[in-house]
Amino acid sequence: MSDRGAADGTTASDAATPLDTVTRIDEDAVESIIERARAAGRTTLTEAESKSLLDAAGIETPDRAVVADAEEAITAAEAIGYPVVAKVSSPAVTHKTEWADGAGVALDLADADAVADATDAIREAAAAEGIEAEVLIEDAAALDAGTELIVGGMNTPSFGPVALVGLGGVFTEVYEDVAHRIAPVTAAEARAAVESLTAAPLLSGYRGRPPGDVDALVETVQAVGDLLVEAPAIDEIDVNPVLVSPDGAVALDALVVLAE
Amino acid sequence: MNVGSLFQPASIAVVGASRAPEKIGHQVLVNLRPFDGTIHPVNPSAEGEIFGREFVASVTEIDDDVDLALVAVPAPVVPDVIEECAAAGVDAAVIYAGGFAEAGPEGEDRQDRVVETATDHGMAVLGPNTSGFVIPGDGLCGSFASGVEEVPAGGTCVIAQSGGVAHSLAFQTLREGRGLSAMVGLGNRATVGFPEAIGHFDDHAATDAIVLHVEGTDRGRELLEASRAADTPVIAYKVGESDVGAFAESHTGALTGDHELYLAGFEQYGIPTVESTRELLDGAAVLGDGPLPAGPNVGVITAQAGPGIIIADRIQRSGGRLPELADATSEEIAGILPGITYAENPIDTGRPMPEFGDVVAAVAADDAVDVVLVNELYEDALGLPVDRMRSLVETVEKPIVFATDGPPADFEDDVAALEEMGIPVFHSPERAADVVSLLARYGALADGGRQEPNDERQEPSDDGTADSTGVNADV
Question: Region Disordered: what ranges (chain B) (predicted)?
Answer without folding.
Answer: 446-475
